[in-house]
Amino acid sequence: MPSLIQTLFDGPLDIIGDVHAEIDALRSLIQHLGYDQQGRHPKGRRLVFVGDLTDRRPDSPAVVDLVASLIEAGRAQCVLGNHDLNILLDHRKPENKWFWGEEFLDANGHIASQVLADSAIQQRVLALFRTLPIALERDDLRVIHACWNDEMIGMAKEASDVVGLYSQHHELIEQSFPGLDLDEIDRGLEHQNRNAVKRLTSGPEERSDVPIHSGGKVRNERRVHWWNDYAGQFCVFGHYSILDSEPRGSGSAFCVDYGVGQRWKERRAGKTSGFAHRLGAVRFPERRVVFDDGEVRKGG
After folding, report:
1. Is 273 inside a domain boundary?
2. Is pTM beyond 0.90 here?
């Protein structure tokens, strides 16, 4: 079986951020990038996805089917995101209820408008996710969902089964706990930072000085901006839903997640167009960003 770290396409690429089930935004973005409905580009460009194809709404199955068809045709590549990983691990997070055919209720008790999976859809989703690498690389470019870490990448290069690698690390970390004075937060951070699969798909974390309220939950951990210390081939990543007012990486790394996964909040507030949260793609080697509404700006 192929390694979890695979070779990235050569030639010019369009690297698309976290889609989070927003099929209409994805179709619009692909069109603005100059691709036809079959994913062909007149200049031979190809697509790369940074993962997190699915989410709490509106149509995760349609996104998975489109990306799978593009990969099968040799016109796209995709790395595994943390949302995708949770499905493989059978971790029943609220945002993935659709996969088990369950309705998602928002904070006000409203049922989300989304396509729910049946057994056939489940099989198609699992078939795709089981084939996805954790990272893609070539001499001048790297693509990963959340974090590039050379030590963890080295571990993943020696593996071909992401669930097996995750489980192996989980067990080894658990075995290291006896005799250590660790509270629940510290134990969680050990699993987050020392498990290669977790570190690469959802990034490093550290203890927060004050509780953080996020997504209706209280967290005692905060994300570490690993890219501030990163030095290596240009790396495109997603996951962080960085605001336009914040630095979007560094000279060596660029976050292409423009927060389209938060678009459901705008819909809940009654918005139907002109969304502030958008889907973007960074063009390489040009380092230009194209959005699903057609705007183009400098990036990276």
Report:
1. yes
2. yes
